[in-house]
Amino acid sequence: MWWLLGLLVVVVAVVIIVASVRVRRARGSWEAHFAGLVAESTWLAHELLPTTLSTPDVAVRNATWTAYRPRVEALMSGLNDAAVAAPKDRWEGLDRLRAAVTELGSAMGRFATATAVNEGESLGAVRQAQRWLEEALRAIQRHSDRQAGPPDGGASV
Length: 157
What we know:
about 0% strand; mainly alpha; elongated
């Protein structure tokens, strides 16, 4: 009888270990995917936007946006997909990033085709969306820094 109880304990322990390993792997996979999305969002904020916004020629601006819009749309889709499996502690940062990228995509679509009449207004919308994106990226970085802990491993000096 005791051997049956011991076997049951061993089976439960194995199930718990296997489940925790799977959860850890899934979290690691999600974090790696999310890191790629953050890198792509950083590219959007620090490379594509400055290049596009510094172009005074509407035709060039529109051509640049047209060329890179599929990449931005893929980023939006990736952020939406990541939200499905996001851990609870990542929901807020992910939602902020998704909203900022979505707003920036919409604002850039309007700005890329803006005429002299509405260029100032659409540029203002892009700049505001760019600020939201930068804030979302900083919040994600702060969260990552808190998760990593002190650089010395927590040792006090």
